[in-house]
Design brief:
The chain has about 300 residues and is of the alpha/beta class. Helix content is about 30%, strand content about 25%.
Length: about 300
């Protein structure tokens, strides 16, 4: 029987349990992952596939149309299919938005739980879109005593975010907000850096999510160079996403500057409270697969 998992299933999910499931998933044999990108002007079709022995097979097709919000439509759409590792049969069709929301924010939260100072109390969300709202929910689960601030390129977007979450403050100046934060989590569609290394302070944790194409970046070279850099997966980030591809190509950093990915999870730890840690969330179908597996089990146990 093929199960259909709707978005409403998220009532059975828990952010901390998801990060534990992601950590456990990386103890299995390394995933086989392939991405196929097709571009049409500013629009993107991203087909992501993953196979993890002992867990299953997943195919996720995602469309990203940046112009859609202006038309009152969702920017991101797609479909998620989960198949058996034993016989290849289709096990479940999961709501695309459900898997994407929990995978994306959960991916960043796993790194933050290991790299950010556990006593962090000031968290800045850069970008007031759908992902930003997911990040608020995720980070609240791990940092329940934190104060949250949001910055958005358009003030109206930040105001709408704060209206939906009255305890969130609005930052009008990004530089001041970054300097004051202990954790900065950024999810924008920027193609040029908006977070500058000169702004970063000792002890901060920087979480970069938005860039997913070679021509996209959220942080400048100085931010990458002065931080201890971690990624979720070297294969899907270093040669594919501008955040790291550009400084690697220009010689600002070398490959060894990227300390570890999640298959080296024991290396995800702070050296001291003065260092700056930076995590690049590149996503990947293997993380969608781990998330889908977690969702299926969580819903089944509910």
């Amino acid at each position: 029987m093929i199960r259909t998992i709707p978005f409403a299933a998220e009532q059975h999910l828990d952010w901390l349990a998801l990060t534990d499931a992601l950590a456990a998933g990386h103890e299995l044999p390394p995933a086989k992952v392939e991405d196929v990108f097709l571009y049409q002007s500013e629009n993107t079709l991203l087909n992501r596939s993953a196979w993890i022995a002992g867990m299953g097979v997943l195919v996720k097709a995602a469309t990203v149309f940046p112009g859609n919000p202006a038309k009152g439509k969702a920017m991101v759409g797609g479909a998620v299919n989960l198949m058996s590792d034993d016989d290849g049969s289709l096990q479940a069709i999961l709501d695309f938005a459900l898997v994407t929301k929990w995978k994306t924010a959960g991916d960043s939260l796993l790194a933050a739980r290991r790299l950010a100072r556990p006593d962090s109390r000031n968290i800045l969300i850069v970008g007031a879109g759908t992902v930003g709202r997911s990040l608020l929910a995720a980070y609240r689960a791990a940092f329940p005593d934190a104060r949250f601030t949001v910055w958005n390129r358009s003030l109206s977007g930040a105001e709408a975010f704060a209206a939906a979450h009255p305890d969130v403050q609005i930052a009008e100046d990004l530089e001041s907000a970054v300097r004051a934060a202990e954790i900065v989590t950024s999810a924008t569609m920027s193609t040029t850096p908006i977070i500058m290394g000169d702004w970063l302070q000792p002890g901060q944790h920087i979480d970069l999510i938005g860039a997913y194409r070679p021509d996209m970046r959220e942080a400048d070279d100085a931010a990458i160079a002065k931080s201890r850099v971690f990624v979720d997966n070297k294969h899907t980030t270093m040669d594919h996403i501008g955040e790291l591809k550009a400084p690697l190509a220009s010689g600002v950093i070398d490959p060894a500057h990227v300390i570890a990915d999640y298959y080296e999870l024991s290396s995800f730890r702070r050296g001291n409270d003065k260092e700056i840690t930076l995590f690049k969330n590149g996503g990947g179908a293997h993380l969608d697969l781990m998330t889908a597996d977690y969702i299926l089990k969580a819903v089944g146990n509910a």
